[in-house]
Amino acid sequence: MSRERIAQQNRDQIAQVAARLIAQDHVLDLALAKRKAARQLGLADDRNMPTNQEVERELSLYREIYQQDHPSILLALRYKAVELMQMFDEFKPYLCGSVLTGSAGEQSDINLTIFTDNPKAVELFCLNHAIDYRILADRHQHTESPTIGFYYDDTPVRIAVRPLREQRQSSRGHGAPLERAQLAKVQALVAESEQDIATSDAT
User: Fold this and answer.
1) Tell me, what's the pLDDT at 177?
2) Superkingdom, according to UniProt (predicted)?
3) Is the pLDDT of residue 174 over 70?
4) DSSP string, 103-149
5) Count of Cβ atoms closer than 10 Å to residue 71 Cβ
């Protein structure tokens, strides 16, 4: 068997085990899930890791077979995301992460990003609306760009506040899945999910 063939098999195996870890053990960090999967397979030194897209593809297949209630769980999370985006509408938030890509599960958090050069305004908004938030620690993050965490209807929410200059960075690469979306796009995804569930229930 060729080296390339072996490398691809390793990638496929890591992606499959990582998907199972996410679905069953609620390992929500894709990078961590891949590392754990590689260790379980004895491939911890393998540098040929699958991409996030490959893991998410395997995760979709896994949930289609073993977690048939996943579409309803995802739709409920997207409903909450729409409500949150409407709540923070003055900051023009973006949805990102697993609730957007569709890989979210029951334990997933809702990730929003707000681009502003006045992060204190977001904190003041939370205070004025009696949102019991906290600043989440992140060793890779500068203090002028906080990540705010709180619970919304028992679902954890993370709002990354980033400087305006970062908004100009492309939100998707060539052939890559959507990385962030504003309210109208999320509402369209909700409508698509509702239609898919209705069609499934009718068959």
Assistant:
1) 47
2) Bacteria
3) no
4) ---TTPPEEEEEE-S-HHHHHHHHHHTT---EEPP-TTS-TTS-EEE
5) 17
